[in-house]
Amino acid sequence: MKAAPRRSSAYGPAGERDDIVSDSTGSFLAQLKDVCGGIARGDYQSIDTLFEMTGNETADPALQDLAESFGNMVVQVEAREFHLSKMLEELKETNRQLDEARRRLSAENVQLRDQVQRMRIEIDQTQKEREVSDIVETDYFQTLKTRAQDMRERHRARRRD
């Protein structure tokens, strides 16, 4: 038969807590746990309590160091959060500027499309005039024009008769 595993020295044989942790140490740890829990939930008001705990003369120096380590972590977390909030503000401002630029570009695109459409019409008109000019200047067209004039004159002459 194997012996039951030994419990930590903080517990007695019946599982009751030994008096290894003094009342003041237990109270300090409980307060540290509560303060750190509050900070973890975003309650930075209790940070002053945490820093007061680092100077608690009645607490074990190791516990004071632990409280100070937690305090340093909180300061670093606050600094990161501050930096992130500033970055978020900058990103929001940049996003606002991009939206404004997009709106301006959209309006300019509409104007440019209108200009391009007008230019197409002008180009089409110019092209048409050039093609008409090319046709009118041909010998064939000049011959047709002369024949048409002759036919009109003969028709007028017949009407007079």
Tell me briefly what this model is.
By secondary structure, the protein is mainly alpha-helical.
What structural class is derived from the secondary structure elements?
A: mainly alpha
The count of DSSP E runs of length 2 or more, i.e. the number of strands, is 0
User: What is the tally of helical segments?
Assistant: 4
Bin the helical content: over 70%
What would the principal axes of the Cα set say about the shape? rod-shaped
Rg from alpha-carbon coordinates: 48 Å
pLDDT < 50 stretches? 3-12
Account of the protein in words:
This protein is mainly α. Helix content is 77%, strand content 0%. The protein has helices spanning 23-40, 47-54, 61-136, 139-160. α2 (47-54) packs across α3.
Topology:
Layout: H1 23-40, H2 47-54, H3 61-136, H4 139-160
Helix pairs in contact: 1-2, 1-3, 2-3
Question: Any key phrases for this structure?
Answer:
mainly alpha, 4 helices, 161 residues
